[in-house]
Design a protein that fits this description.
Distance between the termini: 29 Å
Shape: elongated
Structural class: alpha+beta
Largest sheet: 6 strands, mixed
Radius of gyration: 25 Å
Bound molecules: adenosine-5'-diphosphate, magnesium ion
Oligomer: single chain
Amino acid sequence: MSDSYLSLRKLVKSYDGRVNAVDGISLDIARGEFVTFLGPSGSGKTTTLMMVAGFEKPTSGHILLNGKDIAPVPPFDRNIGMVFQNYALFPHMTAEENIAFPLRMRKLSKEETGRRVRDALALVNLSSFGHKYPREMSGGQQQRVALARAIVFDPDVLLLDEPLGALDKNLREQMQMEIKRIHREVGITMIYVTHDQSEAMTMSDRVAVFNNGLIEQVAPPLEIYARPASRFVGAFIGDNIFFEGSVSAAGRFEAQGLGPIDIPAGADTSGNRVLLVRPEAIQLIGDGARPADNTFSLAVRGVVHYGDSVLILGEANGVPIRLRPSSILGSQVKEGDTCRIGWNRNDVHLVPA
Ligand code: ADP
Ligand code: MG
């Protein structure tokens, strides 16, 4: 990528000399981009972040910031901000003193420090909290202080490692918006680590999906959802049903139990493939409705009402299938019914098995 600002080149990290926690990661991040590392626990996200921050040394590979190898630069000279899940504020310092700390380390003047601390407090909407101690603030407020402290010195890159993991759902959603707003206002390059797919989907320019120390796919959120590059990605992000089988004649996939299924024109059929269908793409076909490309008779085994939608669990030719129609359509369906369901050929994805 020509506009690469932060470049990870074949990064490997082994803690014990036997297993690789990070197993050869290459990624180019543009200036101002918001990239999320998404993956299960233990997949190497934090280790990668720690190498960028300088707290862990790569076993091999390189990290380039603005074209320069940062290997010789110690962590505190890297001009990289970091926010962790546990706010890690200094408990004996007020919010202001916490935020001023990186500026004191950099020996900025008193006036400049005061001005920047005020701006940072305003940016995180805590202007009137400057004199409070961490113990006098809520979790969300403490995390805002941590955020202010991480950006007050105008870092080149901001790293956030599961920063909202300790907050409850409402506060987490509110803070997601806050962090996005700050990203827009400040325009700083951010790497955001999470194992929460909805967080990754709503916040990121691009998502890098980690698995076993490797990046399986890096792409904008909607592309990750619509065109998963591997079975792991298809299963980790979004609801999913996989059908085993094989590509048969042109434009067809022979699914075990279900029979032939139309696939998108021009789909990549190389190698072994499985078919992925998202339950939310499956339609309930009522009387007089336009039939979908692939239709099946579904024996309904269970119905779960969520208010706005309905989850229908059933079997077509003995193959388990679930769908999520709106409650307007789905509320008439009852356990024991047989109904017509279907999907359009462009709603299925052939994924490497
Ligand atoms: P994630 O952040 O995706 O949960 P980590 O990068 O923390 O994953 O961990 C990746 C792997 O490296 C895991 O198997 C973990 O146990 C191991 N690991 C992480 N930190 C250390 C460490 N300081 N010493 C030894 N092994 C570690
Ligand atoms: Mg981690």
